Amino acid sequence: MADDIPPRDVNDEPGESDLPGTPGGRGAEFLGEQGQQPGLMIDAVTPGGEDILQSGTEPADTEFTIAARNQWQLVLRRFRQHKLAVASAVVLLLVILFATLGPAIWKYGPNDFSNDFSVAPSLSHPFGTDSNGADHMAQVMAGTQLSLKIAFTVAIAGTVFGSIYGAISGFYRGATDTLMMRLVDLVLTIPALAVGALLGKKFGNNWVLLAVVLAGLLWTGSARVVRGQVLSVREKEYIEAARALGATDRRIIFRHILPNVAGPIIVLFTLLVAAAVLTETALSYLGFGVQFPDISLGSLITSGETAATGGRGWLFYFPGLFIILIALTVNFIGDGLRDALDPTQTKARA
């Protein structure tokens, strides 16, 4: 058999037919139909950074290419498909602009008095005036601004503390977890309104201290939810890999665990904003919240209740409307974020 093979000069250059992948050439039997080894997939990256998955010489359909989007871009896309949440975000943004930019634009201040006593809503006073001649729209702007400050301060403080507390409890488990969760159960048994009224009467003249008091009463929900999430991820492979590489417990908690449970934390933040607004309103309505000369939506509700029974309902309805808008829009935004961050959602495909 060896005698049938013609001799080849070692100085000969390989011909086109000898190149692998050339039809009929040597090595063709080792290649697939497209001139590649069977099953070989080549990943190519275009100069623009777009990944192209190639099988042979034909690029795959762009629908199945490796997208350059990161996780948060996918979350944003899913959130935009939640129409009610998007509409709520727009309304909440308008409320925030009304409260922050409105006082700088509007010609009246909350403490500017005039001779227009108890005037119904008109072009010059869209929300009417109170019995002292103060423009009610300026008061609602100031009240909305302070209520939003309190709500976001409570939400940030409560979410951060509760998330860290729950992460530590779920990570260490055992006796540490048992002791920390018993403390959470103890805080949950305390009537929030009663304690808030007791402390709010003392700290109501300082809205920052009032926000700290509310955060100290509302953080437990975040702790319980984050603890449950941490218990489900602490045994994942990437956590074990971090331990094997010598990562400290602090690094594992803050760099690996908490970022991977960010979805529920964000939803908890939005729910805590709504809870803080309603709690502050309830305390102010009872006379234990924000104290004069500060103005909040809750204090406006309190002062407007008696006016509403006397035929000046606008002093009650407008603050109530803004409380409802803030509470509802924040809750709808939380629902949209929950659906967008939930990996089991299949309606919005990237």
TrEMBL record:
Residues 1-11 have a biased composition (Basic and acidic residues). It is found in: Cell inner membrane; Cell membrane. One of its GO terms (biological process) is peptide transport. Residues 1-32 are annotated as: Disordered. Gene3D superfamilies: MetI-like. It is a multi-pass membrane protein. The keyword Transport applies. The keyword Cell membrane applies. Keywords: Cell inner membrane, Cell membrane, Membrane, Peptide transport, Protein transport, Transmembrane, Transmembrane helix, Transport. GO terms for cellular component: plasma membrane. Its main location: membrane. Residues 144-334 form the ABC transmembrane type-1 domain. The chain crosses the membrane at residues 84-106, 150-171, 183-200, 206-226, 257-277, 314-334. Belongs to the binding-protein-dependent transport system permease family. OppBC subfamily. This is Oligopeptide transport system permease protein OppC. It comes from Catenulispora acidiphila (strain DSM 44928 / JCM 14897 / NBRC 102108 / NRRL B-24433 / ID139908).
